[in-house]
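User: Structure tokens for this complex, please. No commentary.
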Amino acid sequence: MAKITLSQLRHSYFPNPRGPEDYALKQIDLDWNDGGAYALLGPSGCGKSTLLNIISGLRVPSEGRILFDDKDVTHLPPDQRNIAQVFQFPVIYDTMTVYDNLAFPLRNRGMAEADVDVRVRQIAEMLEVSDMLKQQAAGLSPDNKQKISMGRGLVRDDVNVVMFDEPLTVIDPHLKWKLRSKLKELHQRIKATMIYVTHDQTEALTFADQVVVMQEGEVVQIGTPVELFERPTHTFVGHFIGSPGMNVLPCDVKNGAAFFNGQQVQLEGEIVNGAGGKTEIGVRPEYVSLGKSGLQARVRKVADVGRHNVVEAMVGDQKVAAIVKGEVPNQGDEIFLDFKTEQTRLYADGWLATNARGAA
Amino acid sequence: MKTENQRAWFFVLPVLLLVAFNALIPMMTVVNYSVQETFGNNLFFWQGLDWFQNLMRSERFHAALGRQFMFTGLILLIEIPLGVAIAMSMPRKGFWVSICLVTMALPMLIPWNVVGAMWNIFTLPDIGLLGYFLNHVLGIPYDMTQNIFAAWVTIIVMDVWHWTSLVVLLSYAGLVSIPEAYYQAAKIDGASNFAVFRFIQLPKMKNVLTIAVLLRFIDSFNIYTEPFVLTGGGPGNSTTLLSIDLVKIALGQFDLGPAAAMSLIYFAITLLVSWLFFTLMTKDDAR
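Assistant:
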């Protein structure tokens, strides 16, 4: 059990990186608290697997340090870090039985056979694989194989952190739910720090207490699922999380007010001083409603997604999505869009540039 | 919907015809010869199973069969571990991969009789590069036309040189198909290098190794051209392998009947041992 600190971490796959674009991880300063359930969320290629491999010790970062409880482990090999990692595709030792698979990490560390037996049975019980212990591991179904690879990580009681690298990719949809709640349950029983890497927002938001959102080698926001949804600090987070994502609308800023398509839009609060560059208005479709006044728009498409309708309307040549419950307009109708003021924000060069009302 | 019928047989028919003409029918003529005696002019005399009985009691046949098993056994014992070892030390990615692969494949591209001739010249004591070096530089008396041990070493080294590549390429194909995650998981599990080999690499190579053993067994058990060109079966009969002896009986002595009987027994042994290898090496998969 340990708190994990990443300090000024940078990593490049090039031997002599020239600019920031050569870095897979640009600059990461991050604390993972002991016993937390974290999700590392980001699109493919954003550097989340690189970060994971650096924590587990499979990669040595180009710059920076990794501390486990203030002990520098940057150059320790994986087996000396007491970590566990579960990979995208289940890794099991085909020629061994389930029992031997689970016992493997313990035997490699020279544990007495009697203690091995106790641990293996305990973990098998927890994972509900006790009745398969004698079976050849090669013949298991993918979800059971993934359970075994999880078990090999959890079987050591001194494990500092368990990392999951998109572990549900190969699992059938109806088993994903089961395995995910099993994970949640294990986290509560074992109380080890868990880091769950995924590009699937549903998985991240249901598993984690804290979600770390990454983009192009940078951490853009850390927060609870609610925070990420309610107040994204970056347009990327707003767009990546949510379905459909946040509307990001280019706007002009004049005299402390924002203008979209020539019309002023009320924001949640004051614009931060000096906000410049590329300015955009961000508002989630959940907070766009159809009214009698507001921005004039023409309906382009209406999609019924079951719980509600997603109306896609054009303001000028800009697309705006709105989530509408109840009656919906027809395609081609002229409508008026109303943005909920407390949830309408200004972003400058991608980053949040308004203060919450009353906060400033 | 899965329908079951016998239609698949029609698709097998062309192959069956082809096999009939290039294997079954020629083999039946061998069967025909093996139970008769002929002196030419299409005159045949019924002999029954005499040739088979004679052969089973023939010391000459026993000796050739023994040499054949020794040759095949030795080359398998050398080529399989050596091939696996070379494959494991080859780079998995980068610039050197293609260079290694092409270099490895080169010996296999050379025709059998050329290999035999090459090694024949290579080992000549007075002008061959290897023969001269051993005799005149290192002072080791080496002449494979005179010394039985030297002859055996030469045919085995030649076969290892010619065919280890096959094992290397097959093992390599097995090795590169192992996902990186297996090695990473093994590292995290604290597995030793030997454990990685024993529990990850070897099991993943098992299928290709089965094929490698089968191919090498069949090829080496039926080997003819290379040792014939290199040693001609000598000195004496010391490197007269089964196929060389067979050709001697059939074409040297023109004993077509006994040669036909020997061919059939030869074939049966090859088939039996191949089947044994295959069954033993794949028996775990069925479970």
